[in-house]
Amino acid sequence: MSADAGPRRLRADAERSTARILAAAEEVLAADPAATLERIADAAGVARATVHRRFSSRKALLEALTGVLNERYLCGLDQARVATAPPVAALYRLTELLFELKVGSRAIMELTADPATQMTPLSPEVTAGLELLFRRLHEAGEITATDTAWCFALYLAVVHEAAQLPANSPMLGTEAGDVGARADLTYRTVLAALGGGRPPAEPRAGRTA
Amino acid sequence: MSADAGPRRLRADAERSTARILAAAEEVLAADPAATLERIADAAGVARATVHRRFSSRKALLEALTGVLNERYLCGLDQARVATAPPVAALYRLTELLFELKVGSRAIMELTADPATQMTPLSPEVTAGLELLFRRLHEAGEITATDTAWCFALYLAVVHEAAQLPANSPMLGTEAGDVGARADLTYRTVLAALGGGRPPAEPRAGRTA
DNA sequence: TGCAAATGCTACACACAAGTCTCAGTTATG
DNA sequence: CATAACTGAGACTTGTGTGTAGCATTTGCA
Questions:
Q1: Bases along strand D below 7 A from a protein CB
Q2: What would the pLDDT profile of B117-129 be if each residue is shown by its tens digit?
Q3: Which positions fall inside the HTH tetR-type domain (chains A, B) (predicted)?
Q4: How many domains does one find in chain B?
Q5: Residues A77 and A51 occupy one common structural domain
Q6: Separation between Cα atoms, residue B102 and residue B43, nearest integer Å
């Protein structure tokens, strides 16, 4: 399940290096998608050679990164119970989780998708989960939009914009937590944008459980 | 007003080359933001050396490109009469114009903004125009969102997503023109997303005039 | 028509990131 | 503790994009 899933398991410190590199790459690449491996190595506190040791190439590192993000999405979809919970509750919970897991930057996702195919680097499981969620929202009459592709293109866009919004924006209100306010804004905006006929309902299930 | 605004004016064919390069750069860079100057030159039907002759550096070319886009925005804001027309009509018209002028790809705009400052490469005039539009929308009660920054971050995001939407999406309906359908979808979505209390009103002024 | 300007083409210099290799020193783990 | 794994540091090759220069040719313009 790790980056390379090599034949023999890594030593503990090597595993730590891998994790630190991935974390640093996420942070650095979010700020500058064209950042050098050297800058990533610096941010991770390792030598550039070590990056090459843990990841056979830059491409491999990027793929590992999107793998991590995919796992986070999958984890979020699972925790939000998109298949069973009331759709609006699932959407709200999922949105909270996405902000908690800091899946704000779309730039990283666009790094692996080569310019030609323009394919979404989201795994089939993730897209299936999102499709299910929005289909259920539609069946419940919470949204009117019919195209699930449009639904989560818009959803991801709003998540991204809400993540980039400066912390002092009046849109975030005076609520306590920062991520909570962003999630709330995203939830309301998406539901309204996709044609919620009624004013957005409060979720009926657990909030920050 | 041209790319370099040199001391002496260019010959007619040189001016044409400049235009062709800019057009090619827009198309190629929209597909792949990391595209080579050589690929741009090929797409423009000129030699790479000519690109260097018309634009002193890659950076200069990118700046010229954003200049062009800024002009288009400015032109759109002017034609939409954002200062005088009824706000919803102005929004609708502006949206139409943005799609007609193919200002769909945000990738190009993000090319000039260096990763550090994260500044919007939109000119102050453009941002001022957009701010005015959304403030008027708010004052007219068409939207409830209070932060203009949030308003046009979301607006641009929706424009971008609508531009990327595949042509056969059910969201685009069976309307005649492609750009019209996208503009319509964008208009409705944005108005709803920003808290239009009522179902989005039809614009009261000229449509595709 | 004649001249200056613009272009295509080729060759070259330069910078820089990716990737490989070696070796000495450090750290985990049986 | 002894071995094997991991790391940092440095040197090195390679590939590639950018930018410059020269020269023959074409083209706009007066």
A1: 5-11, 16-22, 27-29
A2: 667 788 999 999 9
A3: 15-73
A4: 2
A5: no
A6: 18
- Residues of chain B short of pLDDT 50, as ranges, are 1-6, 198-209
**Residue B181 and residue B137 in one domain:** yes
DSSP B100-135: HTT---HHHHHHHS-TTT----S-HHHHHHHHHHHH
Alpha carbon distance A151, A148 (integer Å): 5
Statement to judge: residues A74 and A16 lie in one domain: no
Residues in chain B closer than 8 A to A33 (CB atoms): 115
B13: domain CATH number?
Answer: 1.10.10
Please indicate, yes or no, whether residues A40 and A70 belong to a single structural domain of this protein.
no
Give the span between the Cα atoms of B190 and A190, in whole angstroms: 10
Please, which residues have CB within 8 angstroms of residue A17's CB and are 6 or more apart in sequence?
A44, A46, A50, A54
Residues of A in contact with B192 (CB under 8 A): 192-193, 195
Partner residue opposite A171 with nearest CB, options B146, B170, B189? B146
Q: Domain check: are A74 and A156 in the same one?
A: yes
Q: Which pTM does this prediction carry?
A: 0.88
DSSP letter at A104 equals: -
Are B83 and B165 found together in one domain?
Answer: yes
CATH number for the domain spanning A147: value is: 1.10.357
Q: What is the span of the domain harbouring residue B179?
A: 64-206
Residues B41 and B72 in one domain: no
DSSP state of B42: H
A69: tokens are 């993000």
Per-residue pLDDT of B54-68, as tens digits, reads 999 999 999 999 999
Q: Do B1 and B69 fall into the same domain?
A: no
With a 7 Å cutoff on the CB, does A178 touch strand C?
no
A58 touches strand C (CB under 7 A): yes
Closest C1' nucleotide to A14's CA: D6
Residue A9's nearest nucleotide, by CA–C1', is D5
